[in-house]
């Protein structure tokens, strides 16, 4: 139901990728040499991370109120135990899961990473939802093979 995305900021980011498959050290070196400054690693690794991203998409229950309660329980627990976190999600899934008018109580203090595969590293397409008036990061291209690694492209100003 929920996937966790671990974000490693390698430098001040503009363009980044996320990796969800086994990837060699030489591939990471190649990616860094090609100018990617942020890498999001999906999986279970012994890493020190700066932020955990909660993936808000897919199939939950058919009850918006049940989904809203579950989201708040999960986010309140993350906050209580000191997990620095963000939300990965789209306006489409947000509306389907929680109802289009539902506003996340901590949106103003929680970064939003949204997907829109338009090959445009910009936020010009962003439309407010869930209490967010602006995003922190955008996934703008998916399922790309570069440096022998399967990646998604991300933009963060």
TrEMBL record:
Tell me the Gene Ontology biological-process terms attached to this UniProt entry: cell wall macromolecule catabolic process; defense response to bacterium; killing of cells of another organism; peptidoglycan catabolic process; signal transduction
**MF terms in GO:** lysozyme activity
- Record's SUPFAM superfamilies? (Trans)glycosidases (SSF51445)
Name the InterPro entries for this protein: GH, GH25_Enzymes, Glyco_hydro_25
- Family matches, as PROSITE patterns: GLYCOSYL_HYDROL_F25_2
Keywords on record: Antimicrobial, Bacteriolytic enzyme, Glycosidase, Hydrolase, Signal
- Keyword Hydrolase included in the entry's annotation: yes
Q: Which domain of life is it from?
A: Eukaryota
Q: Which family does it belong to?
A: Belongs to the glycosyl hydrolase 25 family.
List the protein's name: Lysozyme
Task: Tell me what organism the protein belongs to.
Answer: Entamoeba dispar (strain ATCC PRA-260 / SAW760)
Phylogenetic placement of the source organism: Eukaryota, Amoebozoa, Evosea, Archamoebae, Mastigamoebida
């Amino acid at each position: 139901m929920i996937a966790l995305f671990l974000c490693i900021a390698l430098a001040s980011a503009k363009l980044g990728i996320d990796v969800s498959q086994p990837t060699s050290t030489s591939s990471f070196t190649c990616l860094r040499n090609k100018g990617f400054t942020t890498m999001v690693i999906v999986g279970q690794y012994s890493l020190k991370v700066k932020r955990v991203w909660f993936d808000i998409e897919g199939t939950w229950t058919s009850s918006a109120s049940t989904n809203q309660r579950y989201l708040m329980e999960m986010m309140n627990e993350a906050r209580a135990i000191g997990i620095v976190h963000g939300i990965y999600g789209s306006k489409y899934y947000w509306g389907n899961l929680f109802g289009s008018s539902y506003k996340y109580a901590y949106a103003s203090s929680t970064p939003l990473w949204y997907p829109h595969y338009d090959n445009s590293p910009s936020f010009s397409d962003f439309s407010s939802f869930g209490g967010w008036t602006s995003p922190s990061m955008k996934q703008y291209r998916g399922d790309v093979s570069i440096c022998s690694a399967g990646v998604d492209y991300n933009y963060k100003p």
